[in-house]
Design a protein that fits this description.
The structure is a single chain. The chain has about 350 residues and is an alpha/beta fold. The chain has two domains: about 5-120 and about 290-310, 3-Layer(aba) Sandwich (Rossmann fold); about 120-285 and about 320-340, Dihydrodipicolinate Reductase, domain 2. It is built from twelve helices and 14 strands. The protein has helices at about 15-20, 35-45, 55-60, 70-85, 100-110, 125-135, 165-170, 175, 180-190, 290-305, 315-325, 330-340; strands at about 5-10, 30-35, 50, 65-70, 90, 115-120, 145-150, 195-200, 210-215, 225-230, 240-245, 250-255, 265-270, 280-285. It has an eight-stranded mixed β-sheet. The longest helix has 15 residues, at about 315-325. The radius of gyration is 20 Å and the shape is globular. The structure holds nicotinamide-adenine-dinucleotide. The site of nicotinamide-adenine-dinucleotide has 22 residues, from helix 1 and helix 4.
Length: about 350
């Protein structure tokens, strides 16, 4: 266990506040900032922190760590400023709006000796942690392929929010939920090249994608793993599903609690002569444990600086290279990406 930290929070929207809720009792939020002063004031009042007028005022409080949970276009510059001010940083995914921004942050991380964790909280859901451990243990034989689906149905006006504005979001659902599936695939199967991508803007009135389907893997291999991912803003009933096919078992996670339903890990173990498998179902309660677990991981990596960062900038760089390769396959999305103000 590590001691309490002085925390600064920049961006007090939905996730900034979720991050605050996930802190330990001995962590102290010293200052918060949001360009919407009323949001900063609400968060500051809840935790007894200073509602700062600027990012500089937050950094002047010399926080040990800064949580960055602003719009995507702001993530990289705020992270770099926080590192230069001497803080370690937990920045929300996607960490920036281009692979180049992630590379630049890696350089700042290296130059300052501070550490960055990217908010890949999905790695910290207990069912996904157990699936990853089961697959990597080799108990079920080697991993052959993955299939993952993730989607939500937006809300009225979703296409007028910053997430649908290329200059602020960098792109659509491929970045919104796709980043998580790309990161989970990377974590479970290792880095896989983009084989093909299909992007659509089918329902929402925006230039960014509302659906993305990716195939990852080497095309002409008989042995290396591959993955099929679909993310969508037209999933009228929120859903999360990730299936991992090993030589002797299929492992499946369903649900992410809350509107995504209860989280389960189902392991179908094949009999030597095939036929119906023996099925084990593990359940994990109704609470979203990922935010607190990710915070504990971040604190441990900040305390023990030799410890690898589970979900750091190198992982974000892989995810961004995959996203950029997918957008590059389609002229309309190349034009959309040209609007990205990086
Ligand atoms: N891990 C997850 O499951 C998950 C889920 C949702 C969102 N996110 C990520 O969290 C981040 C924030 O998303 P959100 O849902 O909280 O959005 P949000 O719109 O609720 O909050 C973003 C906040 O950032 C503020 N902001 C914008 N520019 C700023 C700046 N320069 N300085 C300070 N504040 C600024 C906005 O005023 C707003 O309050 C995004 O990177 C998003 O991708 C992660």
């Amino acid at each position: 266990m590590t001691g309490g930290l002085k925390v600064g929070v920049i961006g007090c929207g939905l996730i900034g506040n979720k991050r605050v809720e996930a802190l330990d009792a001995d962590d102290v939020v010293v200052a918060v900032f949001d360009v919407d002063a009323s949001k900063a004031a609400t968060t500051a009042q809840q935790v007894g922190a200073i509602a700062a007028d600027s990012i500089e005022q937050v950094l002047a409080e010399r926080p040990d760590v800064v949580v960055v949970a602003a719009t995507h276009d702001q993530l990289a510059p705020i992270t770099a400023a926080s590192l230069r001010a001497g803080a370690d940083v937990l920045v929300e995914k996607p960490g920036g709006v281009t692979a180049g921004q992630i590379e630049a942050m890696l350089a700042v991380e290296h130059a300052t000796g501070r550490r960055v964790k990217v908010g890949f909280n999905h790695r910290f859901h207990p069912a996904l942690q157990e699936l990853q451990a089961e697959v990597s243990s080799g108990t079920h034989g080697e991993l052959m392929h993955l299939r993952a689906r993730y989607g939500h149905g937006g809300r009225p006006g979703y296409d007028r929010e910053w997430r649908a504005e290329p200059s602020r979001s960098g792109g659509g659902e491929l970045i919104d939920q796709g980043m998580h599936l790309i990161d989970l695939t990377h974590w479970i199967a290792g880095p896989l090249p983009l084989h093909s991508a299909l992007l659509r803007t089918q329902f929402w009135d925006t230039d960014v994608d509302d659906n993305a389907a990716l195939i990852l893997g080497v095309g002409d291999s008989r042995v290396s793993p591959w993955a099929m991912l679909h993310v969508t803003w037209t999933e009228w009933k929120n859903m999360f599903s990730l299936e991992a096919y090993c030589r002797t078992a299929k492992l499946q996670v369903d649900g992410l609690v809350r509107s995504y339903g209860p989280q389960t890990l189902t392991i179908h173990r094949m009999a030597p002569d095939l036929g119906p498998p023996a099925t084990e179902v593990r359940t994990y309660g109704t609470e979203d444990l990922s935010w607190r677990a990710e915070w504990q991981e971040f604190k441990s990596a900040v305390a023990d600086r030799q410890r690898p960062m589970l979900g750091g900038l190198a992982d974000a760089l892989y995810a961004w290279q995959t996203v950029e390769a997918a957008y590059a396959t389609s002229a309309p999305y190349q034009a959309m990406r040209a609007q990205v103000g990086a």
